[in-house]
Amino acid sequence: MTFTPHVTVACIIERDGQFLLVRERIDGEEKINQPAGHLEANETLQEAAIRETLEETGWHITLSGVAGIDLYTAPANGVTYARTTFIATALKQDPDAVLDEGIIGPIWLTRDEIANRQSELRSPMVLNIVDQYLAGRRYPLEVVGQHR
User: What pLDDT score does 5 carry?
Assistant: First the structure.
């Protein structure tokens, strides 16, 4: 069996003490996650993060840094995810955006509201990256290359 981690991206987007998250339906259950998804062919990690955020929230964003690069193995399926989480700023929401299948919609929550909904979080990475971000974990955007 070949080990092949899934390359994913996410964005941490804070505004007025709240974080932009996504309500999504997974296997019949509602879950909460940062705007996130898989890298597609012929795109950079930065392009993937911008695309996924728009597809899942309807928000146009600009990237300003990196909050972390993390590995997570999901107990439900044994898949390992290599996730780069970008720091972004919400610019404008497109009210006519068609969201990805399974997406219920965006939601803004404080850190404490996220912590109080741990049973709904898609993975522990959701709260962990918020806490790391609030603790000052920030890297320049240039730490992630844009080579294709």
Answer: 85
